[in-house]
Write a structure and sequence with these properties.
With 342 residues, this protein is of the alpha+beta class. The protein folds into two domains: 164 residues, Fructose-1,6-Bisphosphatase, subunit A, domain 1 (Fructose-1,6-Bisphosphatase, Chain A, domain 1); 120 residues, D-Maltodextrin-Binding Protein, domain 2 (3-Layer(aba) Sandwich), CATH 3.40.190. Helices cover 37% and strands 22% of the residues. It contains ten helices and 17 strands. It has a six-stranded mixed sheet. Strands 12-11-13-17-15 form a five-stranded mixed sheet. A two-stranded antiparallel sheet has the order 1-5. The longest helix is centred in the first third of the chain and has 33 residues. The chain is globular, with a radius of gyration of 26 Å.
Amino acid sequence: MAPMGIRLSPLGVAVFCLLGLGVLYHLYAGVLSHKVAIFRRGRTVDLRELLALCVEATVQGGREVKRVREEDALDGRAKGRTREGAEEMLTVGDLSSHRRMFHLIKNHFPHVQVNSEERDYSTKAINAEWNPVIPEEILQKVQSRVVPAEALTVWIDPLDATQEYTENLLQYVTTMACVALNGKPVIGVIHKPFTGYTAWAMVDVGSNVSPRSSYNVKSPSVIVSRSHAGKVKGFVEAAFGNNTIIIPAGGAGYKVLALLNPTDGKYDKADVYIHITYIKKWDVCAGNAILKAVGGHMTTLKGEEIDYMGSEGIEDGLLATVNLNHKEMLQKLPSLDQIRSR
């Protein structure tokens, strides 16, 4: 007698399939939801965590800058010329710091765009890692704020004042990181590798650096570029008089700190920072954010806010002030076109 088989009606087959799908759903739903959560977290960024990472990146980059200088392994060479014809230098310190800073940030926030002065993205830094512990100072002053990763652009300057670095004028050297949210600077970090001092700020939240107690309004001292001065002397004197104190200095990061009250105390003291030639956004973004966080201002010489999206350069120079009437300062400036045409 032939064994009897079990025959399912079409309805039974459908029920059986539905039961199987239900079992599979319960087995894999947890795994899938976990993967989706990871993906979603990767597309968002906590600005407090990113601030702490930027501090760490500038410090680690600064260690590379200091190590290369102390080992006298600069291997300095020209990488091109500025629009004014000045030679731009590139050293092992620039590249080592870039690799450390760039990959440290990208390793932790791969969906965030990072723009660096140096363009070597092929070689990864060894041990570009960070134990994501937020310093107590930042925890006390900064609240967590989560934003979409695609709204952020990080600008890093792995070695500001390379020319001075090669000349052993190390007081001017900094490493910098800045975060722009929809083109507006919100986080700024300036680190001085050879003193160990780090200034940081988050706009509308807090900072570890403050303005000085007073600034000279009637006869301000003006800090300007040492190596890319152009015709800035005539520009400044036309604005504030022939007896204006003009302070030539290296590095945009140093110049911004000269307007403030940093605790390491190794700075010229200036009331105004002016630059009249083309300048790159990684040079000034960190300083812009810090000034904005402490009530200062940085604009182009035409009074326009600087947009930290799109192109990497600023065509119309810049004016930076703290606790001064920024609009009145702008009104004192001569026509930039007239100065450039002389």
